[in-house]
UniProtKB/TrEMBL annotation:
One of its GO terms (biological process) is cell redox homeostasis. Residues 17-70 form the Glutaredoxin domain. InterPro entries: Glutaredoxin, Grx-like_ET, Thioredoxin-like_sf. This is NrdH-redoxin. PANTHER family: GLUTAREDOXIN (PTHR34386), GLUTAREDOXIN-LIKE PROTEIN NRDH (PTHR34386:SF1). It comes from the Bacteria. Gene3D superfamilies: Glutaredoxin. Coiled coil: none annotated. GO terms for molecular function: electron transfer activity. It comes from Fictibacillus phosphorivorans.
Length: 93
């Protein structure tokens, strides 16, 4: 895909990553560090600071954090827990 200037865009930029977390969650911290180390932009949503975010996690069928939602124009993938191999597969396609 090309941007408005005709330059080819990296496929990863077409993906939106939403990470549901809470402060007292060691796997959440580990996943945030992993995403940063791999230069993957993400939006963090703390479920303890925002009741709407808590409800979104419940609606996704999750009972623990982290929960990662990876959206593209064609699909929406949900990863429960910090699953490095699965995240690598989904984000580095």
């Amino acid at each position: 895909m090309k941007d408005a200037f005709g330059k080819r865009r990296h496929k990863q930029l077409e993906k939106k990553v939403i990470l549901y977390t809470q402060e007292t969650c060691p796997p959440c911290f580990a996943e945030k560090e992993w995403l940063k180390a791999n230069d993957i932009p993400f939006e963090e949503r703390d479920i303890r600071k925002n009741k709407a975010h808590m409800q979104e996690v419940i609606d996704l069928g999750a009972s623990a954090t982290p929960v990662t939602v990876i959206e593209t124009t064609e699909s929406k993938e949900i990863v429960m827990g910090f699953q490095e191999d699965e995240l690598s597969r989904l984000l580095k396609k």
